[in-house]
Specification:
single chain, globular, Quinone Oxidoreductase, Chain A, domain 1, alpha/beta, 338 residues, Rossmann fold, 10 helices, seven-stranded mixed β-sheet, six-stranded parallel β-sheet, 2 domains
């Protein structure tokens, strides 16, 4: 069985792996059909993802087929199409016992801390599989991306009578936008790329899209009627953007970091204290987010059709990956087909 492994930053190599063994108690053997490429994979490729160690088989946005299950597994069966919740937690840990498996102290995320899905098949804890009856493998590969946005909006406590500023219109920012819109809140998107802003306006029906500038604060006040947004969600992972975001929330507002950086983020405490601001981090997602998203897509409340703009085979990914880094290629979401 062949897999594509990232040996070091910017260096992929095809490697041969032993065939997966039969699933043990609590496990399922899955065949991988689709793998989404996200910011985490790109950061790992560039050597900028602080949690990734090398060599590493990437891939945590997965649409899979169940091949076999352990004797005690009852909620999935061979032939089921599933999305994979790639956050492999220790159920006995403090966070997991308190209903927070997404930030378990001993968390092993597929494709980050442990090998992921850029291989034909692998074993996974069956409790991490979420069945869908009508979704395609490509739709299932989008569920994890959407779950990140779903969890970020839940963390923010965004209400329908509030305004939400989303900074960064990459896949995670777009996923956040999907769930901000579902609350009924007014949404504003900021991004450097005019192509991405055009996508937000055209496909996501966002009225107010802005590029960063020295006038950003005043532009926001003009849109909101003199105020700043109650909720700001930064999905950039850029330390300069994250630092500047402290100044963009309303008094009593909330700032959520869903993007990740290994660099320092700086803010002036007195200014943030004066606003009685709340700072939140949003890591991964919860099992209920996956269940909710599958239901929303199946019900037609989330349209995944505009998301996937680029596709390639696993063998082609080493050549295609550099192009996904270029802003002029118009990549929203790239998917690898196995």
């Amino acid at each position: 069985m062949y897999a594509l492994r990232l040996e070091s930053p910017k260096t992929f190599r095809q490697v041969e792996l032993p065939q997966s063994s039969a699933p043990a108690i609590g496990e399922a053997l899955v065949r991988v059909h689709r793998v989404g490429i996200c910011g985490t994979d790109i950061s790992a490729y560039l050597g900028k993802m602080p949690f990734v160690t090398y060599p590493r088989i990437l891939g945590h946005e997965l649409g899979v087929e169940v091949v076999a299950v352990g004797d005690d597994v009852t909620h999935v069966r061979p032939g089921d199409r599933c999305s994979v919740e790639p956050y492999i937690d220790d159920p006995t840990s403090y966070a997991s016992r308190r209903g927070r498996p997404n930030c378990c102290e001993r968390l092993q995320v597929l494709g980050v801390h442990t090998d992921g899905g850029m291989r034909p098949a692998f074993l996974v804890p069956a409790r991490k599989l979420h069945v869908a009856r009508t979704l395609s493998y490509e739709q299932l590969a989008l569920v994890e991306t959407l779950a990140i946005g779903c969890h970020a909006v839940s963390r923010s406590g965004l209400a329908g009578d509030e305004t939400c500023l989303i900074i960064g219109a990459g896949p995670i920012g777009l996923a956040t936008l999907e769930f901000a819109k579902l609350t009924g809140a007014k949404t504003i998107v900021v991004d450097l790329s005019q192509q991405r802003l055009d996508f937000c306006r055209r496909q996501m029906h966002v009225e107010h899209v802005l590029q960063p500038s020295d006038r950003l604060e005043s532009q926001l006040r003009e849109i909101i009627g003199g105020n700043l947004p109650e909720v700001v969600i930064d999905a950039t992972g850029n330390p300069q953007s994250m630092s500047a975001a402290f100044n963009l929330i309303a008094h009593g507002g909330r700032l959520v970091f869903v993007g990740l950086t290994g660099e320092e983020v700086r803010f002036r405490h007195s200014a943030f204290h004066k606003r009685e601001g709340t700072l939140l981090c949003s890591r991964n997602a919860l099992p209920g987010d996956f269940v909710r998203i599958i239901g929303l897509i199946e019900a037609g409340q989330i349209d995944t059709q505009p998301w996937i703009t680029h596709r390639c085979d696993l063998d082609d990914l080493p050549n295609a990956m550099p192009s996904y880094l270029q802003p002029d290629t118009g990549v929203v979401k790239a998917v690898v087909e196995l």
